[in-house]
Design goal:
Layout: E1 2-7, H1 14-25, E2 28-31, H2 32-41, H3 45-55, H4 62-74, E3 81-85, H5 91-103, E4 110-115, H6 118-132, H7 139-151, H8 156-162, E5 166-170, H9 175-186
Parallel strand pairs: 1-3, 1-4, 2-3, 4-5
The structure holds adenosine monophosphate.
Adenosine monophosphate binds near residues 32, 33, 58, 89 and 93.
Length: about 190
């Protein structure tokens, strides 16, 4: 299996690149943000539980997020591999993912981090808000999300670096150039 983590702050281009990568490598895309949004839209119990947390730009508690992620993996027993987009966002999530994958005889193949400056991020998300209308892309919520990233999520990077699994790609530039840089790394796995 090819199990990739696409890592980066909100607005780094994870969604866009994931779409292209799943097509190239025939992977199952697991975006925890997309799954939460689907639950909120369908007004499931989980959706009700997390809607306010997400609207405010906070991270959903690890226990909820990890349980949901494991369910998604189990739903795809035929998968050739997964691309994890927006997960793990805490070290506890990264550790749980390792334990879970090990329990099914799998592991993370590699982690690719999209490097983007904070200024570029804010500009991109402002633009995205015009198109997506996502409530959590509003300026104050966005600040919160970027804060969550720099407080909690960046610590995931040294975790994978310690395992020798981390690669970085410049996330500023043309979508195709970034994609080529990503595939150059992934093709070597
Ligand atoms: P995203 O679409 O990846 O930016 O996620 C949107 C929101 O969903 C985040 O701001 C969090 O509130 C929540 N979320 C998504 N993935 C996670 C995760 N791995 N851990 C905690 N919260 C998450």
């Amino acid at each position: 299996m090819l199990n990739l983590v696409l890592f980066g702050p909100p607005g780094a281009g994870k969604g866009t690149q994931s779409e292209k990568l799943i097509e190239r490598y025939q992977l199952v895309h697991i975006s925890t943000g997309d799954i939460f949004r689907a639950h909120i839209k369908d007004q499931t119990e989980l959706g009700k539980q997390v809607s306010q947390i997400i609207a405010n730009g906070n991270l959903v508690p690890d226990s909820i997020t990890i349980a949901m992620l494991e369910e998604e993996i189990k739903k795809n027993p035929q998968a050739k591999g997964f691309i994890f987009d927006g997960f793990p966002r805490t070290v506890a999530q990264a550790e749980s993912l390792d334990v879970f994958l090990q329990s099914i005889g799998e592991q993370i193949t590699g982690v690719v981090a999209l490097d983007v400056t904070e200024e570029e991020l804010k500009q991109r998300i402002a633009k995205r808000q015009e198109l997506s209308g996502r409530a959590d892309d509003a300026a104050d919520k966005l600040t919160k999300r970027i804060e969550e990233y720099f407080n909690k999520t960046v610590h995931v990077l040294p975790y994978y670096e310690g395992q020798g699994k981390l690669s970085k790609v410049n996330g500023i530039g043309e979508i195709e150039t970034i994609f080529d840089d990503l595939t150059a790394i992934i093709d070597k796995y």
